[in-house]
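Sample entry follows:

_____
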Amino acid sequence: MLRFTEQELEQMPLVEGALEVTAAVDPAFPAGWVKVQLERLAQEAEHSLMDEPNAHLRLEGLIRLFYREWGFSGDHEQYFSSENIYLDKVLERKKGIPVSLGAIFLYLADRLELPVSGVGFPTQFVLKVEWFDGETQFINPFDGEYLSKQVMGAWLKGHRGPFSELRNEYFDTAEHSDVLARWLTVMKSALLREGLFADALRCSDVVLGAFRPGDPHEIRDRGYIYQQLDCSHAAVMDFEYFIEQCPEDPTTKLLKLQIEELNQEPLVLH
C-alpha cells in the first residue's frame, strides 16, 4: 500500500506521486533509478535554460529540448501498452502517453520556475500555462503542440457526442489525487489487456485503498479481475456489492447471470 497520505501526495510533484503509486503496485519498480534520471534531465534543462530571463522563451526552450532534442513523443503505435505508463520504460524508450509525458514535463517546468500545471480534461491529460499577464495557454503533452479550446471542444464532441459543450471546470487545475487515480486506471487497463491480472488486481487495491474507497465501479472491475484469477467467491462478493449500490445500472442484469454461473463453480482456495 501507499506510504503517503492523499494530502502528502498532493504536496509533492505529480511525478513523485506517480513513482509512489507505481511502487505500491510493483515492489520491483526501480523508483530510485527513475529519480536519478529525472534529476539528470532537470539539471540539463536548468543548465540550458535557467539563464533565460524571459519565461515565455524559457518555456519554448523546454518544449524544444523535451520534444525535439531529447526526442520524447507520444506512442502512436502501442498507445495502450503498460510501457507507456511505467516511468522507467517511458524514460528508456522516450515514448509515453499524455499523463506520463505530462508528469515528467511538469517536473521540469517546476524546476525552471514556469507556471505550468496539469488539467484532467475529459479526453486526456493536458498542460495549462497561466502567465502572469493573465493569458492562459494549453499544451498537448503527447506532442508538445499548443492547443486551442476549439480543438479541445472537438475532442470532447468526438468523445461524448455532438451535443457536448465545454465547461469551465474542465480547465481547472487537477488535484494530484485525481490524476493519480486516473493514472492507476490507465495502468490497470493496460495490464488487463496484457493478461497481467495479478498486477491489475494490485492497481485496483491501491485505488480502493488510497483514492476511492468503496467506489462501486472500481469494486465491480475488481470483481472482473478476481473472475480472471479464478477467485469465484471474491468475484461474487464484488459483483453483489455493485448490484446493491447501483441497482439501476445496465450491467446489473449481466452481473446477476455471471453470479449464477460463478456460484455453480467449485470453491478454489488461493
Remarks:
- DSSP finds twelve helices and six strands in the chain.
- The domain at 6-171 is CATH 3.10.620 (C8orf32 fold).
- The radius of gyration is 21 Å.
